[in-house]
Amino acid sequence: MNTQIKAYLEQHAEPQYQAFTQKLVPNARHVLGVRMPLLHALAKEIAKDDWHSYLCVASSDTYEEIMLQGLVLTRLRQPLSQTWPYIEKWVLLVNNWAHCDSVAMNFSFAKKDKPLLWDLLQPYLKSNEEFLARFGVVVLLDNFINEEYIDRVLTVLETVEDNGYYTDMAVSWALSLCCAQFPLPTKAFLIKHILRRDVHNGAIIKVCQSRRVPDEQKAMWRTLLRK
Question: What is the structure's pLDDT at 110?
Fold first, then answer.
């Protein structure tokens, strides 16, 4: 299977797209240059077939092969408790935002099991590894910024370690969504709690760039920028 997958990827590699990906994803290693729609299509076929055997032996030699494993995981329809061991193994391969976010933003299969997902995310949110923490934050922002979880989300975001640019940017992103969707509790939180300045200001800048936020709200958020 790995031999067939490698041959397929090499056949569809594009030098120009390789250069584009390497520029867009600075941490990416061994990029072939295969477009995402092709990887999504291949992941769909694998997920319908013997995905278990594939994930047990899948090659991780290239950027695309690691991405493919992650995309297969997002297409599984097994209970979260059965899928999570494969996710734990895969996340250890992640060293860039593209791998992380392509999977973390597609956890629709876990929406029916949110209490378990919340518990499973906690070690990632406490991790001192940059992309493990980012993974936890991005799954969090895509699944838990709602009325039921907003207080817990704000509390846990304050505790995320200062362990790198990509983690901080994810926390700012999550806070900006909290600002947009739950302005009152988030404003009170930002006033009361002293977050890292880059994270605090990054969230406000992001929410002020959103077209979904009214201008009068943006003016209020700008007053909270820290010098």
Answer: 77
Contact 167/104 with Cβ under 8 angstroms?
no
Tell me the CA distances in angstroms from 152 to 6, 35, 195, one per residue in order.
Answer: 43, 38, 16
Predicted pLDDT at 98 = 97
pTM over 0.70: yes
DSSP readout, 140-190?
HHHH--STTTHHHHHHHHHHS----HHHHHHHHHHHHHHHHH-HHHHHHHH
Fold of domain 107-227: 1.25.40
Which pLDDT score is estimated for 136? Answer: 97
Place of tokens 């001192």: 128
Extents of the domains making up the chain: 1-96, 107-227
pLDDT at 108: 75
